Amino acid sequence: MTNAQFPATRADSARSIVKAPLARHAMAYVLAGGRGSRLMELTDRRAKPAVYFGGKSRIIDFALSNALNSGIRRIGVATQYKAHSLIRHLQRGWNFFRPERNESFDILPASQRVSEDLWYEGTADAVYQNLDIIEDYDPKYMVILAGDHIYKMDYELMLQQHVDSGADVTIGCLEVSKQEATGFGVMHVDADNRVLSFVEKPKDPPTMPGSDDRCLASMGIYVFETRFLAEQLCRDAAEPGSSRDFGKDIIPYIVKHGKAVAHHFSRSCVRSTAEAEPYWRDVGTVDAYAEANLDLTDLVPGLDLYDQNWPIWTYSEITPPAKFVHDEEGRRGQAISSLVSGGCIVSGASLKRALLFTGVRINSFSSVENAVLLPYVDVARSARLTNVVVDRGVRIPNGLVVGEDPELDAARFRRCASGVCLITQAMIDRLKD
């Protein structure tokens, strides 16, 4: 396929649409089938996008909230790996879209629609296998999103750039250091942000124009015109040896044969007055996950969850307020620099730089510091937990001490290089053997 075979009038035709936000003519398609194996036992029973974050949310809620807040009212979510908890969350928290308002929300598990012996083979295949569903809605634009990153972004601004530039694909990009770029797909661009080449995890990444140490890394966010995307997915599906992946196959092909343009995240990042810099995190390791959650306890965190102009939508359980009880020396319910969700009871225990999800119970004479406790954890009396991530529903026994003896911690729990210990109920059960 040559450049001349790519449609040349997409931007002109788009401008003839009734003057409304481009997002109203777009569908967001969230790729949420990732295993997230680097999160270790946190993804033993759930996909990475379903992992809890920030006290009330799941990771996927950020991409979905960005789409909703941007004005997109058609959303599809492709699921695959250990999807039950993710699907249950989506059904409970994202079921308010109404077809009579031209809205839709589709959960799209790998269902062998194309072949009876094929699940989703790659990110591009996860869209290709559902083209018939997409075409039924007839969106003019497709916004392809990864469902496993933490950030706030107005996709309308990226759509506008896509139309104005006449691009075949617009790629969301982060500015990162040259050292960091070795772990990303990196764009080599010219002064007009046209992508000249795309390389995956290069040892010597190309830098941005005018900079010797800054690179543009792909965020896994793409904007296409739907008709063009369908053509490319069908072409790739017929290509022997393709891995059916956007980053490995679709995007490099368009860079070579068409027009790919980079969109800088800094141009569409949503920030409140409290957020000093564009915020984006891949919480793909236990260390990164703990750090990003605990950063929220800072006096002025990098991510403002209190911004009412850009809310993070999620499923919220009906719970009573958090409760702190007992006020005597050595047995005082208190919290310093902590986030405590609804339904929690801190009974004669102390928290310092801790994030408690819904329904956590911490009993008397216990202390919890630098800790992320997922929903319905129960900490028995006289426990001391430092530098921990505790999985949902774990029952911490009386007097358990974690975070003070590295060798003992490593023998009993999943201890990371930073000293953070991941604790699951299976690990606690083994202590009794």
TrEMBL record:
Native source species: Nitrospirillum iridis
Official protein name in the record: Glucose-1-phosphate adenylyltransferase
Substrates-to-products reaction catalysed: alpha-D-glucose 1-phosphate + ATP + H(+) = ADP-alpha-D-glucose + diphosphate
Site (Could play a key role in the communication between the regulatory and the substrate sites): 80, 119
Its job: Involved in the biosynthesis of ADP-glucose, a building block required for the elongation reactions to produce glycogen. Catalyzes the reaction between ATP and alpha-D-glucose 1-phosphate (G1P) to produce pyrophosphate and ADP-Glc.
GO terms (BP aspect): glycogen biosynthetic process
Annotated binding of alpha-D-glucose 1-phosphate, by residue: 120, 185, 200-201, 218
Domain Glucose-1-phosphate adenylyltransferase/Bifunctional protein GlmU-like C-terminal hexapeptide intervals: 320-423
Chain ranges of the Nucleotidyl transferase domain: 29-297
Self-association state and partner proteins as the record states: Homotetramer.
Nucleotide-binding listed as a keyword: yes
Gene: glgC
UniProt GO MF annotations: ATP binding; glucose-1-phosphate adenylyltransferase activity
EC number: 2.7.7.27
Keyword Oxidoreductase attached: no
Superkingdom, natural source: Bacteria
Pfam families on file: Hexapep_GlmU (PF24894), NTP_transferase (PF00483)
Enzyme class label: transferase
InterPro entries reported in the protein's UniProt record: ADP-Glc_PPase, ADP_Glu_pyroP_CS, GlgC_bac, GlmU/GlgC-like_hexapep, NTP_transferase_dom, Nucleotide-diphossugar_trans, Trimer_LpxA-like_sf
Similarity field: Belongs to the bacterial/plant glucose-1-phosphate adenylyltransferase family.
Biological or metabolic pathway of the protein: Glycan biosynthesis; glycogen biosynthesis
